[in-house]
Amino acid sequence: MRSLAVTDKNFKNQLETVKEEKRMRIDNQPYSPAALKFDEVMFDNWTNAHPVIGSFEDLEASSVVDVRRFFDTYYVPNNAALAIVGDIDSTKAEALVRKYFATIPKGAKPPKPDVIEPPQTKEKYEKVEDKLAKMPAILMGWKAPPARDPDSYVVSIMQRILTAGESSRLYQRMVKGDQVALEVSMGVDERRGPSALDATIVYKPGTTSKQAQDILWSELEKIKTTPVTDRELDTAKNQILRALFASGSYSSLQRCVGRAEILAENTLFYGNPNLLDEDLQRYLSVTAADIQRVAKKLFTKEGTTLMDIVPVEKAEANKKAQAGNQI
């Protein structure tokens, strides 16, 4: 924060590091490029749609001047929160913090990005070819309430009931029951602006995209019309508790890093380090009626974004077949 050296040498070094990270984690992973494209289709506001890591064009266009400007704007004491967790002497720790940080001058208040997202009034669709995917898949998603909105806790519980673990509804229906899918997952991309809830279905040969969609919609209709069971609610809530308190969980409060991150993020984003107790209470207070209410509001055809992910080999075969039919 005080003396980061941004030079041409270390800039070029880190630029190549980010490029390689993008190649390994995104570009060379099946379904990952499509997932980034999915956000661009779902969201209308560029701030919400653009991936954090950017594109190679973004990376190549960046410069040392850009990095220095970004650093000077955001890496300032008045835009930071410091959490220290562990077996420490708090008096000595505070003295060290004051020694190393107190004389760093404040900066201007960083600008807040505009994250306003217009309502979605009709279904969106995109077809993407994937050279690394072995099997076709669908991505289906909906804009969700921002983090810490009262309904965001309901969405998290609902997502777990639908896809968390082998006892979840979509796994039991699509993988075990109808046996149309190889993988079923659903995730919540929680943000302080508009969030997203999306489902990924990797389906088997002999199954069509339409069949996978229809089965998914039938399960979403059930959760809209019939209350979930007490057992399902308890299971989902216990999964949240386990993530916070089991020693093996990355975000566990038993780990110093997990506790520090929660304290720092709540302080930085919401101005209150003590929000965890309130969040837990909100998760544990979610009812079956809440899930029905939010599901009815969230799972609408006009609010849906759908993406077909087609393996390149299959896509090329389809093109050849279409060309033959035209002849």
CATH 2nd-level architecture of the largest domain: 2-Layer Sandwich
The major pleated sheet works out as: 5 strands, mixed
Summarize model confidence as the mean pLDDT: 93
Structural class assignment: alpha+beta
Helix proportion of residues, in percent? Answer: 40-55%
Using the coordinates above, name the CATH class of the largest domain.
Answer: Alpha Beta
Number of H/I helices = 14
CATH superfamily of the largest domain: Metalloenzyme, LuxS/M16 peptidase-like
- Gyration radius (Cα, Å) is 23 Å
Percent of residues in β-strands: 5-15%
Q: CATH topology of the largest domain, what is it called? A: Cytochrome Bc1 Complex, Chain A, domain 1
Question: Regions with pLDDT < 50 over 5+ consecutive residues?
Answer: none
Taking strands numbered 1, 2, ... along the chain, how are they ordered across the largest sheet? 1-5-2-4-3
